[in-house]
Structure formats: structure tokens, C-alpha cells
Amino acid sequence: MASRDSHGNGGGGQGTSPSDRAIAAYEERFFQTANSNDSKRRMLEERMTRPTPSTGITAGDALNASNAGANDQPDSDDDEQNAFRVEPKRARRGPGGSGHANNGARGVATSPLGDKERVTPGSAGGRGSIDTYYKRVDGVPPAPAFGTSPTHGVGGIPTPASGSGGRKENHPPGSVPPEARHARTASHHDNTRAEHEWAAALEQAKAGAKREADEARKRASRLETDLAAAAARCEELAAELEASREREASAEAARHQRDQNKTAGVIALAVKVSRFERTRSRRKLAEDGLRLGTVSVQRSGTVLQEVWEDGGAFRDLNSRAAAVQTAKDAADDERKRVKGRLPLPGAAIDESEERALRAEFVLSEEAHKVRVAALKREEDLIGREREALEREKSAHIRELKRVRDEDSSRFNQHPLLGDRYVLMNMLGRGGFSEVYKAYDVLEMREVACKLHQLNPQWSEQRKVTYVKHAARECEIHKQLRHPSVVQLIDVFEVDQNCFCTVLELCTGDDLDARLKAQGAVSEREARAILAQVFAGLAYMNSGSSTVIHYDLKPGNILFDAAGRVKITDFGLSKKRDMNGVQTLSADTGMELTSQGAGTYWYLPPECFETGPTPPKISSKVDTWSCGVILYQMLFNRRPFGHDQSQEQILHAGTIRHAKEVEFPQTPKVSAECKEFIKRCLAYRKEDRPDVPTAARDPYMTYAKPGSE
């Protein structure tokens, strides 16, 4: 390897021609420029991961291949290998010569190599393996690795094996062989071309980056425009939303105002209707008072008492009855007079005269009979008219009482309860409650409001008992939903001494008023009414938690506008336990049975039992009550204690001794009906059917005798 030192460094570069020194200087500038251009290197390193347009390989891969090729040089002949080693970042200086000469010894060549040079790692005067300088990529021509170039010593230019038969030419010291000059020229051209390619690639990358930047700026501009438009749209939508909210609020306020106006209008209309009905009812009372009579107050000593004074209709009826009686008396007197003219037996009288007297008597007798029959018909007519007037009188008295109670009620000024129920007219009063017809301004329907009031004079214990009693009634009633049961709609508190239950309104009368107005009903009608009652009771006795009404009577059976039966008033109701029996304490029983007029008439004997243990009740209590009601509908009287008050019934023990029921001769009823009444009024509760059994009775199901 002395030839490399002599040609490259010998004498500090003396003895070389100017052209050689120029080439060496160019090589020195080339490597210095490549090693010192940091900005270019940084740009190239940024592109190391991208394939170059001219070679199709990445700069990073080329650099790795160059380093691998340099590290793979064999360790033998160090001097010879050092002559061909490439250091891309800095120029290696000779031990005693000029850097230019040393760099000149490392000529850069990228000219095509022969097959032998591709596989020869390096020999004296030869170049290293091609894999040391190039990175091969399939389908892409080889290109120089980044930062490297084939380096040749000045005195070690490879000689082709086939050029001169392997002969090495000798040259004077310090001279450059022609082959080296040609190689250096080719290397210079190749480096220039590579540099141009890299510059073109960089320009292309720069242009691409600029295009990308321009596109990014355009996209950013578009996004800013879109963002501004979106912001403007958001502001518009926000303004529209705010306007919509304002419109909605305004519309809601308008709707609320309309609802208030509508409610106020409905309330005003309901009050107007109520006042009109009150005026009409009072006018009718006044007219009926003149015709039927009225209640007046008379003083008897120091006592003031109410007495009934008959009206014109009763006075006329009494006059007619008196006239009929006078006519009957006159007819009897005439008959007696004619009969007195007859000759006595054995009296001496002319035969012709006797025949004339007897003929006159016969004619008078026939006339008397006709007259008496006519007077009898008139008397019967007067009796029927009197019965009708008595029924009208009874209804008139009830209306008088209702009006009097309405006038004394604290709710008679049409208050609005619960913000929805405007009270109209009182329907009735019983015990400690008042029932008003009301109008629901929300649902636009008529309802019945039952107002439960506490007496301020009561003790706290009695108030608690009453509230508990009323709460139990509501708790039981609100669970019932059946066509034959009055529906409970609402419950709310009015004040600390009053609460209200809202019920379905039945515009028809109750059974008690109907019986008083028209008397007994036909068996067919009575059977239909009781069948509906049993349907409601059977529903109340279905399921795990059943209900005993305990206070069934004609006054608690209502009719709606279509004539359907509705059971009401669950104030005394009891819930049955799982065994079907409810224990009734003595105190509770007395309190319950004392509620409502006429209750004792409809209670069975076991409710009046006294003893150390309280009586046991079941649905058979309601069965007994239904038997009494059916009997009353058919015969217009109660089977037990009809002419007694409830106090007399209680003290006389009438019901406790009611062991057998008797039927009047008229009106006629079927044997099946009588047998059903007997089953319902069985004295021993063990012999009496319960509600479900009675409801399935053939008489109630309209089954023919003998059919299942």
C-alpha cells in the first residue's frame, strides 16, 4: 500500500501536475461541502424515510447499507483497505502530507463497475465490493449510498484483468495515470448528477411541502370561513330559539289565560245554573206548599213545635171525601125512608096500595145500590188521589228539609274546592256529612262531593275516631271498580275540620225515594234491581281481600240516568280476612249500627247478639239485607218491625226474634221468589247463603227450575 502513500501524500503533494492538484482540490471541496452543509443534511434527514424519485430507495436504507458495507471490510491488509475506506463526514489526513493530497487520493467515482469489481472486496490498486457503496432494491437500479462514494487511491487504480493480460503499467512518481484521471472525471460527473438528482428531489419535496402548506392554508381558510358561518348560524339559531321560547312562553301564558277565562266562565255558568235551579226549586216548593201544605211553627204554652198544615189539594180532597160520605149518608137515609113506608106485617092495607109501595121500595133499593156503588168508586178514587198526594207530600217534605239544610250549610255560596270542583246544589245531608252536586271544571263533568265535617265541640278522641272511620271508608271504596258500584274519583282536604270525597254522580233517585213515590214494584222489576245489587256484591266478595257492605238499604241503592243500579255509602263497610270472617267489636258495632235511619230493619239477628265475645259477621249480613230489600220492593213494607222505630226494634228485640217470615196475600208473587226470600232471611246464619252463593241462585241467574 506504499503506492497510495507515494501518490497521495508523498512529498506533501509535490511533483503532481496542476490538473491532479485541481482534481484533488475539487474532491476536497466536495467532501468539505458535504460534511459542513448542516442545513442540507437536516433537510435530507427529514426525507430519509421517503423513496427518492430517481432511485426508488430511501435515504435511511442507503445510509444503513453504506455503514454496513464499510464495517464489513476484511481486517487483513489494513494499509490496503485503509486506502479504499470512505469517511463521508470528514476527510482523513495523511500522516505527513497535505489534506488535499490525501483527499485527492480518495477519488470519488460512481461509474459502472465490472462483475469482478462487484464481487472483489478490494485488492492492491482495486476498488471494494459494490455492496459496500450501493443499496440494492428489487426492480430499481443501484444508487450510491447517502454520504459515501467509491474511493480509489492515487496509485491503486484497478486494472481490468482482460485489458493487458494482467500486466501492471509503471508510471513516474507523482503522475496520475490516464485511467485514474478518467475514473476521477467519471466520478465527478456521477457526483454532479447525483447532486442534481438530490437537489431535484429536494426541490420536488419542497414544492410538495409548499403545495401541502398551500392546501393546508386553503383548508384552514375554508374552515375559518365555515367556522365563521357556523358561528353566525349558531347565533341565528340561538336568536330563533330565544324567539321561539318567547313565543312559547307567550303562547303558554295565553293558553293559561284562556284556561283561566274558560274556568272562570265554566264556574260562572255552573253558578248561574245552580242559582236558577235553586230559584226554580224554591218556587216549586212555594207552589206545592199551597197545594200540598207546609210546615208551620205553633206555640203550645212555652214550647214551640212544628206542625203540618194541609194545602189546597188536601183540603179539596177532604171536601170531596166529606161530600161522598154525605151522599152515602143521604142514600142510606132515603133507603130507610122508603123502607119505612112499607106496611108492617099484618097491617090492614089495600092490596093494590101494598103492591105500589113494594114496587117503589124495589126501585128505590136498586137506585140506592147504584148510588152506593158510584159513591164507592168516588171514594176509591179519592183514596188513590190521597195516596198520590201523600207521596207528593213526602217528597215535598224531603225537599223542604233539603232546602233548609242547604240554606244552613256553610258551603252554600258555590265555593271552588280543590281548584276544580265548584259546588252547586245540596243533594242531601246525613249524619256528619253533606253531599253536593258539583261540576268538575277540568274534566267538564258533573260529580257528587261528599263533605265530611268534624264538630268543633267534639273531643279530640272522637275526632280521631271519626277521621279513622272516614279514612277506612275511602280506603275500601277507592279499590272498587264495577258498573254496579258508585266510583270514588278523588279525595282531598278542605280545611282542618273538613275533607271531601268526590264520587260518581247518579242523576236518578234512590230506591227509597222510588218506593215512597210509587209504592210496591212488580216482581219482574224487583228481581232485575236485586240481580244488579248481587252482581256488585259478588264483585266485592271476589279476590283475596273482600268487602262486607254492612249497611245495605234502599237509601244506599242509587239509579243513574239510564236506570242502572249503583251501590253507594261504604261508611260502615268492613274488610274480610282470609277466613271470610270479620271480628266486630262491641263499641265499633254499636257505633256502626247507629249510623243512618232504618239501619236496624236491614241487619240480621247475629248483629244483635250480646255476650262476652264480639259477634262474628260475614257476607251473610249483606245476604240478609238483600232479602229484606226484595221483600220491601214487592210488598211495600219491611218483613220485620215495619211500624217500629229503630229504638223500639232495639229495645223490643224484634230482629232477635224474627225466626220466620210471613207473606201478605197481595200482591201475588211466584213461589220461587218466596223461597229465595226465605233462604236470604234464614234465622241461623249457618242456614243462610253467603253473597257468592246467593248471586248464583237460579232465581237471580234467571235459570229455569230444574236446570243447572
Automatic annotation (TrEMBL):
Keywords: ATP-binding, Coiled coil, Kinase, Nucleotide-binding, Serine/threonine-protein kinase, Transferase. It comes from the Eukaryota. Residues 38-49, 179-195 have a biased composition (Basic and acidic residues). CDD domains: STKc_TLK. Residues 1-195 are annotated as: Disordered. Residues 199-254, 372-406 form a coiled coil. GO terms for cellular component: nucleus. PROSITE patterns: PROTEIN_KINASE_ATP, PROTEIN_KINASE_DOM, PROTEIN_KINASE_ST. PANTHER family: MIXED LINEAGE PROTEIN KINASE, TOUSLED-LIKE KINASE, ISOFORM G. This is Protein kinase domain-containing protein. It comes from Micromonas pusilla (Picoplanktonic green alga).
